[in-house]
Amino acid sequence: MTTTQDQFDDLLGRAALAALFYYPEIVVEDEAYDLQADVTFCLEALEGIDVDDDARAELRMLVGLVITNPTAHRHDLVDFTIELAPPQADD
């Protein structure tokens, strides 16, 4: 069974993958590209997790910023997910 921590890790992995394949010219060259679709893909990792609307809106914004400029925003997203994710259980 997937734990909440695993889901937050998946969110970060999806955001990293989306950032890896993002390039600024895509917005100009590809009319079909939709940054919000990439953000939605990333947030699908948290499906079933109870995150309030304000936190979900903050996550949407941070994920979008990380996709478009990971160097400037990755720490903000990691810090925010650490606040939301439960502590790791000791095995």
Give a summary of the structure in a few sentences.
The chain contains five helices and no strands. It has 91 residues and is mainly alpha-helical. The longest helix has 18 residues.
Describe this structure in words.
There is one protein chain. The chain is mainly alpha-helical and 91 residues long. The chain has one domain (4-84). It has helices spanning 4-21, 25-29, 35-43, 53-68, 70-84. α1 (4-21) packs parallel to α4, α3 (35-43) crosses α4 and α4 (53-68) runs antiparallel to α5.
Keywords, separated by commas or semicolons:
mainly alpha, 91 residues, single chain, elongated
- How far apart lie the N and C ends? 15 Å
Arithmetic mean of pLDDT: 89
The main pleated sheet reads as: none
Question: What level of helicity do the residues show?
Answer: 55-70%
Low-confidence parts: none
Strand fraction: under 5%
Number of domains: 1
Helix-strand pattern: HHHHH
C-alpha Rg (nearest Å): 14 Å
| Helix run count | 5
Shape: elongated
Structural class: mainly alpha
The count of strands amounts to 0
How do the strands and helices of this protein lay out in sequence?
Blueprint: H1 4-21, H2 25-29, H3 35-43, H4 53-68, H5 70-84
Helix pairs in contact: 1-3, 1-4, 1-5, 3-4, 4-5
